[in-house]
Amino acid sequence: MKYLLVPLLIVGMFFSFSAALVAMLFFTKTIETPQQLIQFVTGSKDSTDVFDEFRLKEDRLSELFALADTYKTRYEIQSKESSALVESLATESTRLLTLQDELAKKQQRLEALDDQQVQDQRSQSLDELATFYAKIKPASAAEILQQNTELSDTTVAALMRKLPAQQLGKIMSNMAPDFAAKITKLMQDLAR
Predict the structure, then answer these.
(1) Are the C-beta atoms of residues 47 and 40 closer than 8 Å to each other?
(2) What's the pTM?
(3) Residue 93 CB: number of other CB atoms within 10 A?
(4) In the 8-state DSSP scheme, what is residue 131?
(5) For residue 190, which phi and psi values (nearest 5 degrees)?
(6) Could you say which DSSP state residue 30 is in?
(7) At CA 89, angle to CA 84 and CA 95, rounded to 5?
(8) How far apart are CA 49 and CA 59, in angstroms?
(9) H/E element holding 19?
(10) Which residues, 6+ apart, have CB-to-CB distance to 139 below 8 Å?
(11) Containing H/E element for 176?
């Protein structure tokens, strides 16, 4: 019987040490699942890759250098792309400013043409009105011009300047003195 106790003691110690080892592996979170334990025991998992902290510092340093080189390469590529974009932006900005200047010049020309057309149309309208007022009786013309709220005093003065001198005098003599004085002053201002 004593010979039987020794192997049982050895087997019992083996199981207790194994159980303690498994408990320590789970406690230190080296192994987290029973599947990982099976892989560890069967050797399908690399048992030397336990923790990142236990890796040699030289291994980590070489990884950091490789990572730094990768980032440096990326930075250089992005820096070149950024420089190209900045140059492109500067070129397009210059082109845009040139186009804006051209547009402003064209707009000024159009406004000048529009102003000239408006002046021509106004002059033509005044000529037609002057022809009309030259044919009607001076008393009626004076009354219409004084009571017309749609024509400004400046427009009335411009119209009067287009009338023949004889018709102008007759219409002015039929106007109220203060209105005639105001129109005369405006006619003098327009003559300048």
Answers:
(1) yes
(2) 0.42
(3) 10
(4) H
(5) -70, -30
(6) S
(7) 130
(8) 13
(9) helix 2-27
(10) 174
(11) none
Q: Where are the domains of the chain?
A: 1-54, 57-123, 136-192
Q: Are 121 and 156 spatial neighbours (Cβ–Cβ below 8 Å)? A: no
Judged by DSSP in three states, 151 sits in coil
Angle made by CA atoms 102, 105, 108, in degrees to the nearest 5: 150
Q: How far from chain centre, in Å, is Cα 130?
A: 54
pLDDT at 147: 84
Range of lowest pLDDT (41-45, 91-95, 157-161)? 41-45
Token pair of 106 as six digits: 């064209």
Nearest Cα residue to 156 out of 171, 170, 139: 171
User: First vs last Cα of the chain: how many Å apart?
Assistant: 145
Asked if 104 contacts 110 with a C-beta cutoff of 8 angstroms, the reply is no
SS3 call for 32: coil
Tokens of 65: 């250098």
Q: Two tokens at 32?
A: 């987290």
141 by Cβ neighbours in 10 Å (0-12 / 13-18 / 19+) ranks as buried
Q: Determine how many CB atoms are found less than 10 A away from the CB of residue 162.
A: 16
- On the 0-12 / 13-18 / 19+ scale of CB atoms within 10 A, 160 is buried
The pair of three-digit structure tokens given for residue 50, joined into one six-digit string: 């336990």
**pLDDT, average across residues 102-114:** 85
Label residue 38 by pLDDT band (50, 70, 90): confident
Contacts 24+ apart (CB under 8 A), 38-44: none
